[in-house]
Structures are given as C-alpha cells and as structure tokens.
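#structure-requests
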Amino acid sequence: MKRKIAIVMAMVVAMTSLAACGSKEAPAAEPAESSEAETPEETDGSEEAAGELADTGELTLYYSNSTEWADPIIQEFEDQTGIKVSLVQDGTSSLFARIKAEAGNPQADVVWGGVIDTYRANQDLLQPYTSSEEASLKPEALDPNGYYTGFDMGPMVMVYNTELIPENEAPTSWGDLLDEKYKGKIACADPTSSSSAFACIMSIILAYGTDGKGYEFVEKLVENMDGKVISSSSGVYKGVADGEYLIGLTYEEAALRYMESGASIAIVYPSEGTSSSPSGCGIVKDCKNPKSAQMFIDYLSSKEVQSQLGALNRRSVRTDVADPDTMEAWENIAFVEMDIDWTSSHTEEFNDTWNDYITR
C-alpha cells in the first residue's frame, strides 16, 4: 500500500511541478471511465445466509475524488480482497443526482467523496452502516444517524497569488473578499455543484450568522466576484496559481498539493473561523453488493489507509494517526461552530438564493 501511494504521489508531484513552470497550466486529472461499467449481477435473493450478507465478489463505486490518488487505494482493496471494483467518477452532486435517478434499480454500491453535508442532505438515498473501525475514529467522522463515515479532514481555506500580492498586503479574513481591489479577481466554483465551494460558502454564512447576515455577506461577495463563477473546483487553485485570479476559495489539500509543486500561492485560514467537514463515504440504499460495500467502508477507515493520508496532504479521521508536521497545527486554526443539520436542511434554499444572486 505504502509503495503504491508513494509511486503515485511521485507522479503527481512531477506532473504538477512541470505545470508550475512555464505556462503553469496544471494538467487536470483524467476522469475514470464514466460510462457505466458492467452492472453487478443480482444475487439469488438469499442475501442473508446464517445471518451474514452474501459475498458477490463485486462492487460498483461512484466517487468524486481525483483518480491520481484514489485509484491506487481502490486497486489495493481489490488486491487484498479479490473484489472486482467497477468505477464511475463524477462530481459529488452529480453522483448523488444519478443515485437518486437510479433509486428504483440502484447501480452503485458505495459513494465516496464530497463533504458530509451532502451526505446528510441525501440521507434518504443511503442505508445505515457504521464502520467496524468506529472506536478509533474522531467524533466528527461519525454520523449520529449512522448513514455515512468520514474519510479525511481538511479545513476550507483561501489562497492568494504570492507573486501578485505582497505578504504584507495578504488577506487574513473572509471579510477581505469584499475589498474592491479583488473585484472580478476572486476564484470560486459553483457551490450548487461543487461540494468544496459549498463548504466554503457555508463556512462564511456560519461565521457571519444564519440570521440573515451570512446571506448578506454572500450577496456582497457575488457582487465583488463580478459574475464570474468557475465550473469546477480544480479551476480555483489553478486559476490563482496561474495569476488569472488574485484570491480563491478552496480546500486545504488542493492548496498544499499546489504549494508542494512550486506554485506561487499561499494559504489563509480565515480569522473569523472556517469549517472542516470531513469528506464522506456511504452505502447506497438497496445496493446489490452490501457485504462488499461494508468491506470497502471498513477498508477506507482502516489504519493501513488512514496512515498514508499525510503523504496525500490530507488529515486522518482516526484518533491514532497524527497530522504531518508540514500542516498547520490544528489548534492554531480558528473554526466556526458547525451545524450540519442547518447546512443540510437549507441546501435547497441556499441553491435558489445563490442562483438568484448570480443571475441578477
């Protein structure tokens, strides 16, 4: 496992290092085969034998993670278990929309990637399962309702271009996004389709108040964005690194990865506080391969996998795995008080409000 991830990380660093030179255009990760893989055969109806789920030896995984680092983890799971994994890769919101459309005949067994707010908002599409590694997981990684398991932790952050903004003029807060000097130069993905952008904007709303002041801030932010919304989350850190934008809203792992490659960006942990909703994984309701799905959730939560996350610029959800020294100490970061019930229950309202702001 360690060797495979080390190899893929060396490849990622090499690719992004080349991107940081010359044109600085980082290559986007090639998506996994998006066409539907062969649908796993249905069991003979006796899914329980001696109190145990049937083992089909197959798994269909819908995931929104970068193939560069996620695929080696998946491959190792296949090697260890002999389970054949069929892959569909897309954005988190698109995957859940697909799962909803397929509810009458589920094609996916597991969905992996995207913040847990999205899982809570789509709880009716999932079936309860708590990882066998529960005792070793941080409380933030566990769903009180039992429908998802956190995979990694990572604060939502701002990044700025260090070649275009001197250190003594660097932003320090969400409030700095409203500065006139950033008008039309703020990189933000569409939060109605990007889970990381959604988490960033929700951090702002929670920081400024769910009583309406948060929405007032977002309205002013959209005005200062000058109508520019990036189609994908990867476009945020790329756009800032390339100098197309001065400042951007993104997630810590992406920022650290680009900084490692030599890109001219720096991270800001906003002074008002940010959020750190774990990314999630969950089992699709009425899936065809429940035992394989449970094994995959347990595998992602295992110390074997979680101890490798630091090399991927990610923070583990396990209590027995420490963050690497290359990351800002957790206790030095200001966090807002998370209210996942509020964020998930107001998702539709937020999407409508955001679209209203953008189309004015």
